[in-house]
Every structure is written in C-alpha cells, then in structure tokens.
Amino acid sequence: MRPKRLDDISWDAFKNLPLEEKSPYFKQKNGMPYHVLLAQQFDRETLDHVCRMATRIRRIAKSKDGMAFLMGQLPHKRAMLDFSQPSSRTFLSFYAACQILGLKVGEVRDPTTSSEMKGESREDSVRTFSSYFDLIIMRTPTQGFAEKMAWILSNAGRPVPIINAGSGKDQHPTQALLDIYTLERSFERSGGIEGKNVVFVGDLLRGRTVRSLASLLTLYPGVKQFFVAPDELQIGQDVLDQLSAAGVDYEVTNDFESVIPEADAIYMTRIQDEWDKEGESHQVDISDFYFTADHLKLLKYSAILMHPLPRRKEIDPAVDSDPRAMYWRQVRNGMWIRVALISAIFGRDDEILDYYTRNLR
After folding, report:
1. Residue 11 CB neighbour total at 10 angstroms
2. Sign of CA dihedral 206, 208, 213, 215
3. C-alpha closest to that of 346 among 60, 61, 134
4. What pLDDT score does 95 carry?
5. For the chain, what is the total number of helices (H) and then of strands (E)?
6. Positive or negative CA dihedral for 74, 177, 234, 244?
7. Which residues are catalytic?
8. Would you tell me how many other CB atoms lie within 10 Å of the CB of residue 103?
9. Which DSSP category does 169 fall into?
10. How far is CA 42 from CA 4, 33, 36, 211, in A?
11. CB 152: neighbour CB atoms within 10 A?
C-alpha cells in the first residue's frame, strides 16, 4: 500500500485535519520523513533512528576520509534556504549541515531583494525556487505556510521536500529534534529521557520551540512536564489539552524556585517580543524567571540547563562554565541532527550505516 500523498486531498480538507492525521502525508514508503513540517509527525521509532544516525554521522566526520565520504553523499543535489524571518543560528546550522553532505546551497534572506518587491506572491516565489532546487528549507513568520507550500508543490507536479525551520508561533520541528537529541545524549547513562522531569520556563505562550518539544516528549513514558511562567505568558490550553489526551503528567506554576530541585532538565526561553503588537511584553515582570548562579545550588548535579538561544537576561553568563549548562552543546547538536534528517529525506541512511559498520564499529 503506497503512503498517503498531498495530491490525494484538497487543501481545505488537509488544513482542517488534526495535527496527528496530517503526519502520514509527510512520510516515504520506508517511514522516514519526506517533508518535515510538524513535531507531531515523528513517532518514537523515527526519533530514535534519527538520533542514532546523528551520532554515527558525527563520529564518521571526525576523520578526513569520513568527512570526504559524507560530502560525497549528495553533491548532485541543491538546497534552497528561504529565510523570510530573521535568523542566524538556524540558518547557519542548516547551511553547515548541507555542506557536510555536499549539497550546493542557495539562499534568500531578505524578501526585499526578491521579486516580491514587484508584487509577486510568496507562493509564486517558492514555486520558482522549486524549479531550481531539490530541497527547500523555509523559515517564515506565517503560521502554516510551510504546510501550504508542501501541498501546492505536490499538486503542481513538483513535490520538492520542504523542511520547516520555524513557522509563525506554532512550530519549529527541527529545534525540537535537536532538543530531544541533546536530552538523549545527556541522559544516555541514566536511563534516557524516560521518567525525567522537564521544566519549561519563560515565554511559553508564544515559544514555538516549547510547543514542539512538549509534543515530542509525550512519546517518552514517565516524563513529567512543568510549565513555569508569569500568568500573561503561561502555556496555552491547546498544549495542555494535547498532554492530557496523551495521559501525560504536568504541572503549571509561577513559582520557579520551588521546581528547580525537582528538575532533570530546565528549558529556559526568552521573551518573544517580536510578536508584540504594542510592546505589551515590556509590561510583564519576568525577573523572577531568570536562572542565576545562585540557582545552581538548587539544581541536581545530574540535571541539565537548556536554552534554544538567543538569550537575553534569562540565564546569567556566570552559569556558562558549569558542566550542567548544555545550551552551547545544543547548538552543535542541531547541526548534526539536521545532517541526519537531510540524509534520511534523500534515503542515504543505509549507505552511511554501512560505512559506519565497516570503519568504526
């Protein structure tokens, strides 16, 4: 039985599907992703596979011969980085990931340099990119736009894979993947992610990284999620409803210090004031939701501190030298998980695994 395809369904029918029911439209026959658009499209088996591949790839890349092998995987492919929303970290992470696999890369980071200044629609711009490139990596302030372009290209006979590198306030699936990978590596000697307490702190209402990671954590039994924020920025009810439906234990509070001793992982976030309409974020006192050097005394020795970056004042730089500070490793993990993801999209897993088995196992 062939997998479901986006040209099997109308756009109106597709966009109104629950998130979990959209997932089958993004997969290849082997179960690996074709488009990467939603955190909800990943099951536990796929997550485990991509994390294992990321670790194998980073080991292969340690040698000159290994890096030459990786760069020979996709030299015949071209990737377009279409970043209509400002980014440096995610952009460079994907750029480096493409380079490691040998892809040729094009980019548009400023829509004012494109034909959109002449009145061209975003949809037509991306359709144009699909004529030149084999993969589109897209960051956009518009919620649902990556999904819509995946549907449009599939129904236009040019089903180029799309990776969502951040869409509006709703999804950032590859950030969630690198966060899962960071948690896996951090807890690989203490039973993995299962059974851990994960604490989210900061602007949880508008933080798309939190929404995506909270969803993926439901795949790990026994994980309890804590949401710590001022009332104005607390996690949305839609996320809590998803957790309840999945039978996940969670706690909502604004008492940060009380939950620090319980945490196995603390995930700090900045204020997402780019979504403000009239500067309303500046009216919210967030000083009680900063992680200071004094808080290290309350944190378990085995716990970790994470942040999707960029940060402002929510983590004191004095914390950076503590071995529990994991956010700079997160950055590097992001590059490797994206290499693994792109290799999976183009079906290079078996060849990479064969090389790893013959040379490094």
Report:
1. 13
2. positive
3. 134
4. 96
5. 13, 9
6. positive
7. 89-90, 118, 139, 172
8. 23
9. T
10. 16, 8, 9, 14
11. 18
Q: What is the mean pLDDT of each run of 10 residues along the chain (361 residues)?
A: 84 90 85 86 93 96 97 97 85 96 90 60 88 93 89 90 84 91 95 96 86 93 95 90 94 96 94 58 76 96 93 91 94 95 94 94 75
* Chain centroid to CA 198: 17
- Distance between CA atoms of 195 and 42, rounded to whole angstroms? 20
Closest to 106 measured CA to CA, from 87, 89, 120, 91:
91
Torsion sign, CA atoms 30, 92, 239, 265: positive
Sheet holding 250-253, edge to edge: 250-253, 224-228, 197-201, 265-268, 304-306
Which residue is associated with the tokens 């006979």? Answer: 157
Strands across the sheet with 162-167, in order?
Answer: 104-108, 78-83, 135-140, 162-167
Considering Cα of 310, then 180, then 203, then 136, what sign does the dihedral take? positive
**CA–CA distances in Å: residue 171 to residues 113, 166, 175, 212, 334:** 26, 6, 9, 6, 16
Cα gap 95→239, rounded to integer Å? 31
Q: Other C-beta atoms within 10 Å of 81: how many?
A: 25
> Quick check: 269 and 207 in contact, CB under 8 A?
yes
The helix/strand/coil state of 316 is: coil
Q: How far is CA 292 from the centre of its chain?
A: 26
Non-local (6+) Cβ contacts of 327 within 8 A are 305, 306, 307, 308, 309, 311, 315
Compute the residue count for the chain.
361
Q: Which residues does 206 contact at the CB level (< 8 Å), separation at least 6?
A: 169, 233, 272, 275
Domains with residue ranges and CATH for the chain: 6-171+333-353 (3.40.50.1370), 173-331 (3.40.50.1370)
Structural contact between residues 48 and 177, judged by C-beta atoms closer than 8 angstroms: no
Pairing of strands 304-306, 265-268: parallel
Q: Are strands 104-108 and 162-167 parallel, antiparallel or unpaired?
A: unpaired
User: Could you give the 3-state DSSP secondary structure of residue 143?
Assistant: coil
